[in-house]
Amino acid sequence: MDDARFCLRCGTALEEVTLEGRARKRCPACGFVHYGNPLPVVAAIVEHVEGEDETESRIVLVRQKAWPEGWFGLVTGFLERGETPEDAVLRELEEELGLRGDIVSLVGVYPFLQRNEVIATWHVRARGAITLGEELEAYKRIPIPKLRPWPFGTGLAVKDWLAKRG
């Protein structure tokens, strides 16, 4: 269960109850039910092309400032109100790397149970000079043949994307 403790409507402490066969949190004062649904997240497998030669493309992995040293992953971000997932992934690309890109294809949608998120991932192709956004500590460009998936979160999308490429 998530860490919600108070009602979003009236501020009363939530109580744990069983509804629809699942543990839920409900407000005893107004009846509001906090379902704790997963947050929608978008992710980009960023294929970055330098120069005019398409064979020089690399996958960009990023490290958030809050992450442990040596951890890198995909460009990710939360879907915002009034935004399509496709617009969100391109916005995150620009915010985090200073790049404009084009969506090549949807890779898939993946559960990230550890963080209560559902991640929609796209393959995005981008060009230009990388400028790190304020959330990032570092980036690295990986040749596609050297890219290796990790066993959780966005790593599942990397695994599927690499499998589709053959």
Major sheet details: 6 strands, mixed
Q: Number of helical runs?
A: 2
Strand elements, count: 9
Q: For the residues shown, what is the average pLDDT? A: 94
Describe the global form: elongated
What is the CA-CA span between the terminal residues? 39 Å
Order of helices and strands: EEEEEEHEEEH
**Poorly predicted ranges:** none
Helix/strand-derived category reads: mainly beta
Q: How much of the residues is beta strand, in percent?
A: 35-45%
Q: Which bin fits the share of residues in helices?
A: 10-25%
Rounded Rg: 19 Å
Outline:
It is built from two helices and nine strands; from the N terminus they run ββββββαβββα. The chain is mainly beta and about 170 residues long. Strands 4, 5, 6, 7, 8 and 9 form a six-stranded mixed β-sheet that branches. Strands 1-2-3 form a three-stranded antiparallel β-sheet, with no helix packed on it.
Chart the SSEs and their pairings:
Blueprint: E1 15-19, E2 22-26, E3 33-34, E4 39-49, E5 58-64, E6 75-78, H1 85-97, E7 100-112, E8 117-127, E9 136-143, H2 155-165
Parallel strand pairs: 4-8
Antiparallel strand pairs: 1-2, 2-3, 4-5, 4-6, 5-9, 7-8
Descriptive notes:
- It is a single chain.
- By secondary structure, the protein is mainly beta.
- It is 14% helix and 40% strand.
- It has helices at residues 85-97, 155-165; strands spanning 15-19, 22-26, 33-34, 39-49, 58-64, 75-78, 100-112, 117-127, 136-143.
- Strands 4, 5, 6, 7, 8 and 9 form a six-stranded mixed beta sheet that branches. A three-stranded antiparallel beta sheet has the order 1-2-3, with no helix packed on it.
- The protein is elongated, with a radius of gyration of 19 Å.
- It starts with 14 loop residues before the first strand and ends with a helix.
- The model has no long low-confidence stretch (mean pLDDT 94).
